[in-house]
Design a protein that fits this description.
The protein is mainly α and 251 residues long. It contains 11 helices and 3 strands; from the N terminus they run H-H-H-H-H-H-H-H-E-E-E-H-H-H. A 3-stranded antiparallel sheet has the order 1-2-3, with no helix packed on it. Helix 7 packs across helix 11. The radius of gyration is 24 Å and the shape is elongated.
């Protein structure tokens, strides 16, 4: 593959003649740039705030890695190489004791940041191009209808646990994620042309509107929390949305 052509500008020629060194762009600098742009879009509902948190956590882990591996607070983009990303994976596995798939997600975020640097022309090659992210297919235990019924009817003396259980059950019956359940309002629940109640929510990752018919148990959960203080305060849709909002406020 041919090497990328570097464009020479009049300013570069002048600076070279005068002995002025060009400012070296750094890894955390491009990460901050990416996170700032991502945050602006997340505030307007175009991107997920939860995904933003993952990139912010990626910066924390990279900062720790730089200090641990190189005794540096940052590193120039031009100093990055294949060993950097390979050792970053090793650091996540051995120092943070992360699962292999979780470590790979942080590596994937790092590779995307390098893509941003290339698009900004802060670096003219991809030092991690030959590093392939490999995922291990986990064994997932599938809940049966009997499991859900037992969980739903189980008496839990601690209110907080009962509320978390209801959120989980609601998500199981609707297919919506926690973050999506946390954000819907009263207007999201409407009667369809079939006479049944439906809930319509914009999916967090795609932004597309998805409608799901509410089955008896999700309807029971909504009615259970309809007069919840958080529902009345925030015009929430009742049920798990109120307690999801409550749990989020407690964090």
């Amino acid at each position: 593959m041919a090497a990328a052509t570097q464009h020479v500008t009049p300013d570069m020629v002048r600076n070279a003649y005068m002995g002025i060194k060009e400012k070296k762009r750094t890894l955390l600098e491009v990460l901050d740039y990416h996170n700032l742009k991502f945050a602006e879009k997340a505030q307007r509902g175009y991107l997920s705030p939860e995904t933003l948190k993952k990139y912010q956590t990626t910066k924390v882990k990279l900062t720790e890695y730089l200090k641990h591996q190189y005794k540096l607070s940052d590193i120039a983009l031009e100093d990055l190489n294949l060993a950097f990303v390979s050792n970053f994976e090793h650091f996540l596995l051995t120092q943070h004791h992360l699962h292999s798939n979780t470590a790979m997600k942080y590596v994937k975020n790092l590779k995307k940041i390098i893509g941003v640097a290339i698009s900004l022309e802060w670096i003219n090659y991809n030092p991690f191009q030959s590093f392939k992210c490999a995922y291990i297919q986990p064994e997932r235990e599938v809940l049966t209808q009997e499991d859900l019924d037992f969980m739903y009817h189980k008496h839990l003396p601690i209110q907080r646990l009962a509320e978390v259980r209801d959120v989980f059950i609601f998500c199981c019956y609707t297919g919506f994620a926690y973050s999506e359940v946390e954000s819907f309002t009263q207007e999201a629940i409407q009667k369809g042309i079939d006479g049944e109640k439906w809930i319509s929510i914009n999916r967090a990752k795609t932004g597309t509107l998805e409608s799901v018919m509410l089955l008896p148990i999700p309807l029971q959960i909504i009615e259970k929390y309809r007069n919840h203080a958080y529902c009345r305060m925030y015009n929430r849709g009742g049920g798990p949305q109120a307690i999801a909002c409550k749990q989020q406020s407690a964090l």
